[in-house]
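[agent] plan:
  1. take the single chain provided in the ticket
  2. run structure prediction with default settings
  3. attach structure tokens to the ticket
  4. add a short note for the reviewer (M.T.)
[agent] executing step 1
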Amino acid sequence: MHNQSNNRADFKMKIPSVYFAILLAIMTASCTREPTAVTPAAPVAPVTPVAQAPEPEKPVSIADMWSPDLVPEMVVYDFRQEDLAEGPVTEWKSRGVKPRTAAGTASKLAGNGGVQFAKGSSQQLLWPTDNQAPWLHRWWVVIARADISGAAKDVPVLTVHGTGGGTIHRQPYVKFVAGKGKLQSSLSNGSGPAVQEGDCRKSATEWNVVVAFRRGNQHHAWINGVKQSPIAFTGMEACRDSSNSYLGANDAEKTLSSDMAIDRVIVGQSELNDALVDKLVGWAHWRAGRQDLLPVDHPYKKSPPSKIADANDNPSRFVFDQAAWDKWTETCAATKKATLGMAPINLDDGKGNDYAVIFFDDFKTDTIADDLTGEPSAIWYCPSHMGNIIDADAAAQKKSSKPSTYIHDPSGTGTMALRMLDVNGRWRSGAFTSVNHEGQGRSWGKGRFRIRCKFPKLASPRPGFFPAFWSYGTEHLFWRTRNRVELDYLEYDGKNGAWINTTQHVHAKALIPFESPEIRKSPDVSYKIAGRELNAKNNFTPTIDIYDGQYHVWEFRIENDFSYLIIDEKEVVRVPTENWISLRKYILVDWALRAKERPAVAGQTYDMTIDWIEVQQRERDLAKVPAGFSARPILSGTRGAGSTITCTPNVKASQIEYRWYKNGEPVVGKTEATFVEDADSVGKAIRCHIRAVSLVNQPEAWSAEMKAR
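[agent] step 2 finished; step 3 output follows
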């Protein structure tokens, strides 16, 4: 048992006070250069002496400092040493939107010296598994110190879900590395650990600062004032085992080889923009009294970030308006049947038909990848992060599972079939989305969302099929405190293949409760945009029954004023466009089974066969220059096989995502500013899509098409 009375004097030292740091800044600011006189040379007129250096701005007071408290919805949990009384610690309760209670043994040192975990002991504070890490743990701050100059083993600080490998551990893992004098922040996926490493302060008297984050398929970190180069990372999975999370000793380092103390540990949600990263880095170093470690060009080198909120602190989020919803549903009742069964509205809205195909997959090649291992520029990911929401009684499989439920046929124009099959008495099927497990991928706002597919030719009674082509707002993957917004373009059951369902949902039960007037509280709200048979009674002749074994084309078109459901070039419904319809969304396709309606026949297989999926948007919308861009991206170069096309993004951002398209077909694997043409691209129009990942709200812009020669 470690004797607390034997703590070394240097480990009892008080945290360098922010008050002291700011006093030092004030003293520095008071020093100004003396004016320097310049003797004029005759006969030139006298030269005015060099002006006295301007007086530096006064440092911000403690009360006016920016802190993570100003972005409370982002903070998932926040352990602060000031929340504990001096002496033995058996429980440390965090703050945050999803607070943790860490239990075990440690001690709070006097004079804000931190929460100590003693050398030679197994002291730790732990909490149980949480399976929300892939979406909640987007950034973390650790302020800690340790005497590792003679440490024989690594000294852990923060370990989320254990130190094991694979996709469900190290979410994240922050530790001092013995013998190297390094401090690490690491994550883990199926390829092994992704490690950010920087120099640490080896003395027990000096605090160390880690600010790390996941953003746009990359792991970034600032370690003791040094910005590390980002490294590729994706493939984090929800922890489904019983791995604990720890402060102090963990499942690998069960005995601490050095005293270690923690001042602050924060874990947060949402992808950070660079301005917010700068504030977080500046604040953390000033809190630790280590602003001296910041580079000379850091915006908060001379004074801490000011407590003045700006747009970077408040990224846009979906706001639910009950009055607008009520008015919308009333208007829908009057508009949705008015043009039932008629030819769809003209694509020329009075300003010209300028729709362009910006996404097209005809499945000539197999474009579906496993959602944990597929590369960032993949087209589709499976099975889906939606889990049992879409599984029902036929679980959606991974792409690599055998026998496969993703049947690609390259013959002819190419198709992809989601196959429902019986695997040892359990039904399996397929599902895919346009974003991966962590929310990275392709999403869109307004436009034409279209699919051409067919279903088995089966007479009634049929199994309880539940196919869907639908969408989800991207926000819920990054803000677990917000409403989930779902728009089902088409849903059918197995009872009546002529009955179409199109529904708008706002799911009120956020995964993490957060008090805000912008968030819809219970219950959910849903509105059936379409729910009717497509038969002669409703002006559809012949009847459109999806179980006829024939291909049909479904389209959901979102314009500025109205949104439309169109099937086989006949309008089914139109409703006013509101923000819950036009928000940025990703596509999902699934072929589910509800056995309670009617079980499937053992040994049979059932295919949902997809010919193509496309998204179109208006050129006038694509030509818009969003905030942060100086102009739309520009393509340059000479067309031809082997030629290089270059995209000038016209945006200043530290992290830019490039996606290339040829006639709307995504080019997988091409994520840089240049594209080398191959034989397939020569006769097609080239376009590049830019996402400024590191700017607030991650603005996106499209280049104009570069036509084929």
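[agent] step 4 note for reviewer: Confidence is low (pLDDT under 50) at residues 1-10, 12-60.
[agent] ticket updated
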